[in-house]
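Blinded run. Sample ID left blank on purpose so nobody reads anything into the name before looking at the predicted structure. Input follows.
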Amino acid sequence: MASPEQQTALFAKLDELGIAHKTVSHEALMTAEDVDKAAPGAGMSPAEGLCKNMFLKSKKGELFCFTMQTANKVDMKSVSKKLAAPECRFAGDEFLASVLKVGKGSVTPLAAISDTEIKCAFALDQRLVGQAAVWVHPLVNTQSTCLSFDDLVKFLTAVGHPPKILDFSDMVEVAAPAGGAPAGKPAKPAKPAGGGGSAKKGGEKREKGEGDKEVNKETGLGMAARKEDDFPTWYSDVITKSDMIDYYDISGCYILKPWSFSMWEEIQKFFDAEIKKIGVQGCYFPMFVSQRALEAEKDHIEGFSPEVAWVTRSGQSELPEPIAVRPTSETIMYPAFAKWIRSHRDLPLKLNQWCNVVRWEFKNPTPFIRTREFLWQEGHTVHSTLEAAGEEVLEILELYRRIYEELLAVPVVKGKKTEVEKFAGGYYTTTVEAYIPATSRGIQGATSHCLGQNFGKMFNIEFEDEKGQKQIPWQNSWGCTTRSIGVMVMVHGDNMGLVLPPRVAPIQVVIVPVVYKDSAEVTNSAAYELEAKLKAAGVRVSVDARTNYTAGWKYNHWEQKGVPIRLELGPKDLAKQQVRMVKRIDNSKEDVPLSVLVPKMQLELELIQHQMYKNAKDKHNQLTKTVMKWEEFVPALNAGCMCLTPFCEEVEWEETAKKRSKEETLAGIEEEDNTATSAAAKTLCIPFDQPPMPEGTPCFISGKPAKCWVLWGRSY
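Blinded prediction complete.
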């Protein structure tokens, strides 16, 4: 959202240019329909001067802001043609924050003042030409500013964005995408029968509630892109329109809204309870680390050096020594461990902290997946023997598998990282690896490291054993992050939006009363009674009895937020003592007798959880291909698969496979330096579940005797 200072600068610029302007305040206006409704009461006239805006991104990555009258409608194909920009789609909210520096719903040509790097081109509809009063937002959608068309052109030109005038007079008007905000294509209007408008079994149509005649109007709820066509835009749309995140004005940093944070809380609740069963205690250490401590372990800091953020000033004064913001906490915690541990009686020491870390990524950030600040838990434990440390490594890894498979319904492969891919400074690393079918990329889900004795030597951690001998202890560290939420979204989301596994869904069941003026009180009262019964049974449930939205709008809204089950309750349902159940996973519908509603919901939520996992597991298995020779390797990757190969487990050949897979894939095309996803394949893990390997099986790339099966893939 634009700051008061930005708005002050905008008005000052208008005054400096001698542009007459008038500003009025009103409620937040998100759509063109909102603008039209608010205009009379706010004194915004004439109607021909009311505007809506489209913030677009072309296939080539060009950005455009197009302004037209609210009453006019054009399709995206026509706009793309007039802009001479291929396949324009609505730009993601991250571009609103970083380029136009406005919030959602506040797109405006006046935001050109913020685009000092000229990243966005501005265009105006020819039908606005000559208007004496054009109404646009002054960087916020709770106000509208009036100026003439000529003055708007004057302003845009003055700030380095001379506008292009688009003439659509030669094109047939069709239904337009939602205006006034960078929303996606409007969702098909959903009728009270489960959002799809289908009839009950037997041909009886579902009843319509009060106001449902307006469902055909633009909702602004549709997705701007299809998952299979434009995954980055789809993903941005899903996480913003489901109200999971908001963008921040520092690149790579994001606001986790309650809808997503509650999912993280469910993960916390499960994991914290489980680690306490094995004696892990909670703690918290400072987020700052001295340069001396951070650089104590050479291999460790080399692994993180490019990502470390440094604090160098306090106010106007330079600090005598730079202070790092933790990328991880080994070097913060272990000096304290050296003071606390003296005897074998002090072991094992098992600590875990829930905190944030900062890794200043310079590659393209992706919310949840690759961010400069993220939330995680990090466990740090100290043991007297390697055997005890190794046992815990696997215990924790199994909990991580359960987070992904039992909570998030995402299949993972448990395994060990190769020497090339293991944690910097560690002894060995175990991992759970997930796969995103839509992008054909593996992704590290969580890791459990045995650090060996290396850090103990660096930080002088010693204990006296039962024989009175000084020993270096064995240490572990393990962590899981909010990346897990992004993986869940990518695996399960569809072209209607988010699809949530019931075990982490903030709301598992939403009840939508379908009301009429003469039945609203009775229907709403019955809905709240059902809510109370389900809550008492442990179901996370909510009633949506808002009167300013139609039932159809609510259906689309909750589908987009991924709620597993929707219950529709109208007067006819009450008369039959039933409720209509609609499942998000497949949009299937069923009439459920009220007498069995509670056990039915409990059963259905479990069935949905298991079905989501099965669907994802089947896809995961389908995209895992056994490859025995190099000639089959890159074609399998290009077909969207992970590759399970016999491998000699030599560093030289692992690096060769990375290099050759990249070269053969790109075939002379230069890859961008800052890309977050490379064309090169890498080892994801050495799976613990090893298929039989006949004696003499050659490595798929070197031809040397293979030592194990290794899972490869392109990766985030």
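Unblinding after everyone has recorded impressions. Residues 172-205, 210-219, 672-676 have pLDDT under 50 and may be disordered.
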